[in-house]
Amino acid sequence: MIEGGCNCGGVRYRIEGAPITVAACHCTRCRRQSGGTFSVNLVVPIAQMTVTGALSRFTDRDTTSGAAVQREFCGTCGSPIRSLIDASPGIAAVKAGTLDDPDPYAPALHVFTRSKVAWVEVPAGVPQFVENAG
Ligand SMILES: [Zn+2]
Ligand SMILES: [Zn+2]
Question: How far apart are CA 37 and CA 10, in angstroms?
């Protein structure tokens, strides 16, 4: 069982099973929303995720694909929790920084490296994609 939550404790979540993959996204939208220089996400089937507490939502339409991304966060403390990608129904991208224990989840791939911050280094041997993977 994977568990995590926001800074104020109002939102908690549990994920059953292992993530499909762990992806670091360097796109400008994820950067701004996460407040970090890139965003690390556990890609999980949304049916395997249980959330308690109220998530607020921003519908992000300024995406490369044109498909909206629903960015969900704690409306009280502002911690970003997950993104639901309209182009990939049934999948949630959960912010790894909100996990109680992120240690096991190093990124397996890095996407949107065309907008990677210059001083961020992708570890050697980890696959990189200029835009989306695949
Ligand atoms: Zn909160
Ligand atoms: Zn992104």
Answer: 26
